[in-house]
Design goal:
This is Transcription elongation factor GreA. Belongs to the GreA/GreB family. The protein is an alpha/beta fold. The chain contains three helices and seven strands, in the order βααββββαββ. The strands form two sheets. The chain has a five-stranded mixed beta sheet with strand order 5-4-3-7-6.
Length: about 160
């Protein structure tokens, strides 16, 4: 099954991949060549550190290529589902008890970042919201117990 990802999320992954291939890979090849010139490779810490970094970079390149080839890219701005919460929705939730508002966008697992307000579609919060409408109330099991939230708004931004 293909993994859903927003257009913006796919672009971020492509940019990281391009940076690794065009900047980081050549830098590490140069660092390995310079470290080799220092002589005995068995006791050459610079060489071993550069080789280790090369392994990390090559692994990340393979991972990104695999993720992008298996991704189903969805243009959120073109979704036309009204005020129903589906993948890609930007949702404002209000805590029923405190009126504190939180804003989240439901994204693919590959691009989730809670610090940026991007929550994975597989997360408990996103699963509770999927299929609901503006004005609906959801209950989320939090570490401190159940919390009740009202869906204040649903938007489909790019």
């Amino acid at each position: 099954m293909r993994a859903p990802i927003t257009l913006k999320g796919a672009q971020r992954l492509r940019e990281e991949l391009e940076h690794l291939k065009s900047v980081k890979r050549p830098e590490i090849i140069t660092a390995i060549a310079e470290a080799r010139e220092h002589g005995d490779l068995k006791e050459n810490a610079e060489y071993h550190a550069a080789r280790e970094m090369q392994g990390f970079i090559e692994g990340r390149i393979q991972q990104l290529e695999g993720e992008l080839s298996n991704a189903e890219i969805i243009d959120v701005a073109k979704l036309n589902v009204g005020n129903k919460v589906v993948f890609g929705a930007t949702v404002v939730l209000a805590d029923v008890d405190t009126d504190e508002e939180k804003k989240y966008q439901i994204v693919g697992d590959l691009e989730a970042d809670i610090k940026l307000g991007l929550i994975a579609i597989s997360s408990p919060v996103a699963r509770a919201m999927i299929g609901k409408l503006e004005g609906d109330t959801i209950v989320i099991d939090a570490p401190a117990g159940q919390r009740e939230y009202e869906i204040v708004s649903v938007a489909y931004l790019d």
